[in-house]
Design brief:
Layout (H helix, E strand, L loop, with lengths): L5 E9 L6 H19 L4 E8 L3 H9 L4 H18 L6 E4 L3 H16 L3 E11 L4 E3 L17 E10 L5 H10 L4 E2 L1 H10 L7 E2 L1 E3 L8 E2 L2 E6 L1 H6 L1 H5 L18 E5 L3 H14 L7 E5 L2 E3 L2 E2 L10 H8 L1 H11 L6 E3 L1 H31 L11 H22 L3 H22 L1 H7 L2 H22 L4 H10 L5 H13 L29 H7 L26 H5 L3 E11 L7 E6 L6 E5 L7 H4 L3 E5 L5 E3 L2 E3 L2 E2 L1 E2 L6 E2 L9 E2 L1
Parallel strand pairs: 1-2, 1-12, 2-3, 7-13, 12-13, 14-16
Antiparallel strand pairs: 4-5, 4-6, 6-8, 9-11, 10-11, 14-15, 17-18, 17-20, 17-26, 18-19, 20-23, 21-22, 24-25
Bound molecules: 5'-O-[(L-methionyl)-sulphamoyl]adenosine.
Length: 656
């Protein structure tokens, strides 16, 4: 990545409603990548803001009995508050009503007009207020706006047009010559498909007599600009573009990444890019269209009342977890369905059980057995060597993935290193080393675990700044950026030296960074309660031959079973039996349970790592072909196992 200022933008948001998870998503992604660059010591400029002109905003203002500007001023406070709550570090929050933007738009209009790029014509089309654009008859789907499904009205009026059609071939050639220009590739193909049909010209004005809430055309004062023409130019204003067509000396232009939802891909890749071509300006490097969040598979809308409020998630699980979930849960570019239980599972698995647990284990063992200070490194063995190689590979992989905005893969790479850290603890068994009094080896092991906490804390920092800052502070490293840059430097070496912490430095203990949730937090449960619907009536059961049932038992008999939710930490083949696997299962006890299960015919050991299971925890231990089993897994299937019984609950939760 270069040393030039990294310039990233989000769409500017309409101020006709309250922000929700979708808006937070784009903004968090941009914030995260800008932070990543800043942590690495590269300057970044992150632009976001609000789109304030046009009919939609005007109608929202009228509905509140307010003047449009007063309405916008009021709404902007909410948007900025949402961003502050999410700790969004933008460099400029632009409003399309900002005077410098108005001047840029008028300057652009004036120059395009002088160049002969604009003409006046009378046009009949179908207008969608929801999408703020005209459609032709054949674009409509069931007589409605194809983008929003909202009603359209037929309007005939005289307007100003931009000769967009003149740029069709150049635009297509540019997209074809630059495979990374529109990402992901599926979206690029969509636009190339769109460009196979003839491209029309773009209507860029509205007569003031119909809709006056906009920026006046400097050469025809009866008109204001069309909201999209005005809004797209914000990216130039934000980059220091001047009304006379020159840039200030910030050197920001062109943007490295422009993030947008897939809903506004055409406006960006066609309208925006041809506008830039007409202005003879360098084009952005990448337009990245991400996917759409739905609420449990249903499109979010104010009328359905199913919009997901990120601030509620923050209240329940904290800021870091909320940011992490948004970027880890779905691949950037793909669609995703939000559910509260999905959130909690991701939180408990990745943050409470993996990352938080690693940090907590590291500091509690060091406090218990090594006096709470950073232990010295003794001789290194093959496990330490492997950990070092893995760390080098992880730091490099994160960087690679983030060049392509593959947040999910980058975070998964860090997660894998966290899991390797936890696995290293299982393999080296510090509790046994402590018992044996092998202080030198114990110190080396705990030091490696602490070092892995340092590296993963630094790598996760762009997404979870607060928790990672706290973790590093506890390790005696108060500055995230310094650690991050050190981690990157170390990764440049062939093998990552895991010896950065200061030997003898005191470690702070502190509360768990991500406490486990056994139930949904009450703020979430309360929100969900009114929406709970009765289960659908059971379908008529088909008669099926059933196996003879076992004799009835009393409740007391059943209650003697101690069933617990568990999570497979590690799985391996049984040394002496093909049908058996040996599992280490976390059931909320200090050490995982070893369970031998007859499931090798159904599962490979790698498939089981991380699996949520149900364990019979009070079964008398038994030796199965020479390996002790301290419990049993619940599974479906009489002779052959069909599936494991899985339960979405933190390890140790009682199953009854
Ligand atoms: N004002 C225009 C954009 C002009 S950019 C020059 C606009 N605004 S919007 O308020 O509707 O916000 C659109 C953006 O919000 C989407 O492109 C996307 O980035 C984000 N999202 C809004 N809802 C979303 C989901 N449900 N899921 C994911 N992101 C979505 O369009």
């Amino acid at each position: 990545m270069s040393d030039r200022t990294f310039y990233i933008t989000t769409p500017i948001y309409y101020v006709n409603g309250a922000p929700h998870i979708g808006h937070a998503y784009t903004t968090t992604a941009a914030d995260a990548i800008a932070r990543y660059h800043r942590l690495a010591g590269r300057p970044a400029f992150f632009l976001t803001g609000t789109d304030e002109h046009g009919q939609k905003v005007l109608e929202a203002a009228r509905a509140r009995g307010m003047e449009p500007k007063a309405h916008c001023d009021d709404m902007v406070v909410r948007w900025k508050a949402m961003m502050a709550e999410l700790d969004i570090r933008y460099d400029r929050f632009i409003r399309t009503t900002d005077p410098d933007h108005v001047a840029v738009v008028q300057g652009v209009l004036q120059r395009l007009h002088a160049k002969g790029e604009l003409y006046k014509d009378t046009y009949t089309g179908w207008y969608s207020t929801a999408a703020e654009r005209f459609w032709t008859e054949k674009d409509l789907v069931d007589g409605k706006c194809p983008d929003t499904g909202q009603p359209v009205v037929q309007i005939t009026e005289t307007n100003w047009f931009f000769k967009m059609s003149a740029y069709q071939d150049r635009l297509r050639a540019h997209i074809e010559a630059h495979p990374g220009f529109i990402q992901p590739a599926s979206r690029r193909n969509e636009i190339l498909g769109f460009l196979r049909k003839p491209l029309g010209d773009l209507c860029i004005s509205r007569p003031k007599s119909r809709m006056g809430w906009g920026i006046e055309l400097p050469f025809d004062r009866d008109f204001v600009t069309y909201v999209w023409f005005d809004a797209l130019l914000n990216y130039l204003t934000g980059a220091g573009y001047q009304p006379d067509g020159r840039f200030d000396d910030s050197g920001r232009w062109p943007p490295d990444f422009q993030l947008l939802g897939k809903d506004i891909l055409t406006t960006h890749s066609v309208y925006w890019i041809t506008m830039l071509m007409a202005l003879e300006l360098p084009l952005p490097r990448t337009l990245f269209a991400h996917g759409w969040w739905t609420a449990d598979g249903v499109k979010m809308s104010k009328s359905l009342g199913n919009t997901i409020d990120v601030l509620l998630l923050k209240e329940a699980y904290g800021l870091d977890a909320t940011r992490y979930f948004l970027l880890r849960e779905i691949a950037f570019g793909a669609d995703g369905s939000f559910s509260y239980s999905g959130f909690q599972t991701r939180y408990n698995n990745d943050l409470a059980n993996d990352f938080g647990n690693l940090a907590h284990r590291a500091s509690s063992m060091t406090h218990k057995w090594m006096g709470g200070t950073v232990p010295a490194l003794g001789p290194l063995g093959p496990l330490e060597q492997e950990l070092r190689e893995r760390t080098t590979a992880t730091v490099r992989a994160v960087d690679e993935h983030l060049r392509a905005l593959a947040f999910q893969q980058a975070l998964e790479a860090v997660g894998a290193l966290v899991r390797a850290g936890n696995k290293y603890i299982e393999e080296t068994q510090p509790w046994a080393l402590n018992k044996q009094g092998d202080t030198e080896r114990l110190g080396t092991v705990l030091r490696h675990v602490l070092e892995i906490c340092r590296v993963t804390g630094a790598l996760y920092g762009f997404v979870m700044p607060t928790a990672c800052g706290t973790l590093l502070e506890r390790l005696g490293e108060p500055d995230l950026g310094t650690v991050f840059r050190d981690v990157q430097r170390r990764a440049e070496a062939a093998v990552f030296p895991l010896d950065a912490l200061r030997e003898g430095a005191p470690l702070e203990m502190g509360d768990p960074l991500f406490p486990r949730f056994r139930e949904l937090p009450s703020v979430i449960a309360e929100r969900l309660a009114p929406r709970e619907t009765p289960a659908p009536p059971e379908k008529k059961k088909k008669k099926k031959k059933k196996k003879a049932m076992k004799p009835t038992i009393s409740y007391e008999d059943f209650a003697r079973l101690d069933l617990r939710a568990g999570r497979v930490v590690r799985a391996s083949k049984h040394p002496n039996a093909d049908r058996l696997l040996v599992l280490q299962v976390d059931i909320g006890e200090p050490k995982p349970r070893q369970i031998v299960a007859g499931i090798a015919g159904r599962y490979a050991p790698e498939e089981l790592e991380g699996a949520a299971v149900v364990v019979v925890a009070n079964l008398a231990p038994a030796k199965l072909r020479g390996v002790t089993s301290e419990g049993m897994l619940l599974a479906a299937g009489a002779k052959e196992v069909v599936d494991l019984v899985r339960v979405d609950a933190a390890p140790g939760v009682v199953v009854r």
